[in-house]
Amino acid sequence: MKSSISLRFVVIGASVAGLSCAYLLQQSGHEVLVLERSRRAENPDGGLKVPPNMARLLHLFPGTMEMLKEKATLCSGVYFLAGESSKLLGRMIFKEEIMSDLGSDFYIVAYSDFIAHLYNLCISSGVRIKHGFIAKNVVASSDSPPVVVSESGVQITADFVVGADGRKSITRQAIPSEEQESDDDLLEFHIPNGNKRATPKTELTPLLAANVTIPISLMKDDPQLAPLTRDDRFVVWTGNGSSVGTICCGGKFVLTYNTRPPGPNDRDLEWDDAAPASTFLERLKDYHPLVRKVARLAKSSHWTIQVPKDRSRFTNPQNNVVVIGDAAHTLPINATHSCSGAMEDAVTFGYLFSHLRSRNQVPLFLNGYNHIRGDRTKMSEELEFAGISLVSIPPGPQRDARDSALGMTLHLEGADDETLARVWGDYVRAFNYDAVDAVDEWYMNWAKPLHSAAHSAY
Ligand SMILES: Cc1cc2nc3c(=O)[nH]c(=O)nc-3n(C[C@H](O)[C@H](O)[C@H](O)COP(=O)(O)OP(=O)(O)OC[C@H]3O[C@@H](n4cnc5c(N)ncnc54)[C@H](O)[C@@H]3O)c2cc1C
Ligand SMILES: *[C@@H]1O[C@H](CO)[C@@H](O)[C@H](O)[C@H]1NC(C)=O
Ligand SMILES: *[C@@H]1O[C@H](CO)[C@@H](O)[C@H](O)[C@H]1NC(C)=O
Ligand SMILES: *[C@@H]1O[C@H](CO)[C@@H](O)[C@H](O)[C@H]1NC(C)=O
């Protein structure tokens, strides 16, 4: 669809959220400039998870499904193993049981392949991309258009600014927080150089997460480890108050560790801190020797504390700045929906603004955006954080109950729909979401009637 008016958009950040949003806006007739901090040559490794709710949207981006079919791994399922014994507790096999009904598959694709594809789509549709631009702040007021200021003082004016600048978003500062956090609401963490860091208290508990990466070339010659490198599944090792997830992608084997709220010993950890691999190994004492054997091959580990924020407002009061992707929400990193959430945001915003007929509609559309994404984001965040605590339950009756529920999934052959829905209801609810349908529904209910009413008044 083509929007009836053309606005000048500046998008900050050329990653999943920024590039997909830029492409959709440009295709619908707007004029888009993307500002990206890094130089083009960077080629980070790592794998993106593309669950069905994201794969379903890729028809909006020509050639992406073909690229995935050629380059991505089709993920066969999630396997839950007992951390101590490696006993199989449960499994969700994606292809046969669920995916045919959902009409989309679950892929793992190299971050660099996915970004390169979006990048080329943007360029061929006329999006301009400026590299080496480090945005310092976004100045917004109601009587003049928003301005993006770079670290070197360059100013760029637009009709509208889209902040797709990731977890440490600077654009987010242009959007007042929902309740101003008072000092007594802050938890303090002490960091080694004597500074103090504070994070706000929230209802969902924060997570301490860490990852290590091992080149699979180091594992290939070991008969115990080699089978892991051929894995096309996610494996979750359930622990006592923690869990370890493993995934294999792009020549790398990655372990991600998650544990409950930071305790006194974790106060030394900064955001995105690098630490020796031994720090990671110490945490794995109770885990199966195979997990420890892989982890021992790592050179270093990365640590981060993630605080869920439960936001429902992504736009500023002047209605000319929005945040999308990791800049907007607090989905756990490397989780199932961290990338799909960013894509859903981008599609929701881009597709909404392809319906724009006049500037007067902008506040209404932004209201729609907050409404649509607020509900969905809350659901995905709860699901991800709850999922992580479920696989970390310490020994006891609650864990036994979890294990017997997981055990049901081992005997699902021929199970009826009702049983499947009971076992996998939450997963399916998250996978079954269609961001385009959500906009269509909102548009039919709100924007169209208002538009018709306004016209019939003349
Ligand atoms: C280099 C890189 C590699 C990644 N690899 C993986 C991966 O392999 N697997 C995975 O699950 N997730 C990965 N992620 C994270 C993943 O992309 C996000 O979790 C998720 O997809 C949401 O994406 P996003 O576009 O909202 O944010 P991000 O992907 O974090 O992108 C933010 C973008 O904004 C740019 N930016 C930030 N601040 C500024 C500024 N002040 N001025 C200008 N530009 C700015 C950044 O350089 C980046 O390109 C990666 C992110 C990056 C940046
Ligand atoms: C995990 O997330 C980090 C940061 O968001 C990213 O750099 C990394 O590549 C991701 N790893 C995987 C395997 O997804
Ligand atoms: C689980 O962890 C707790 C706290 O660290 C510990 O006290 C307990 O002994 C552990 N239980 C088992 C079975 O390892
Ligand atoms: C591990 O986490 C760090 C920090 O979040 C990130 O920079 C790094 O890319 C991650 N690596 C992998 C392979 O996940």
TrEMBL record:
Q: Which organism is it from?
A: Marasmius oreades
Q: Which GO terms describe its molecular function?
A: FAD binding; monooxygenase activity
GTP-binding as a keyword of this entry, yes or no, is: no
- Domain annotation FAD-binding: ranges: 10-375
Checking Pfam families in the record gives: FAD_binding_3 (PF01494)
InterPro entries under this entry? FAD-bd (IPR002938), FAD-dep_Monooxygenase_BioMet (IPR050493), FAD/NAD-bd_sf (IPR036188)
Segments crossing the lipid bilayer = none
Key words of the record: FAD, Flavoprotein, Monooxygenase, Oxidoreductase, Signal
**Can you tell me which family this protein belongs to?**
Belongs to the paxM FAD-dependent monooxygenase family.
Which superkingdom is the protein from? Eukaryota
The name this protein carries in UniProt is FAD-binding domain-containing protein
Q: Span of the secretion signal? A: 1-22
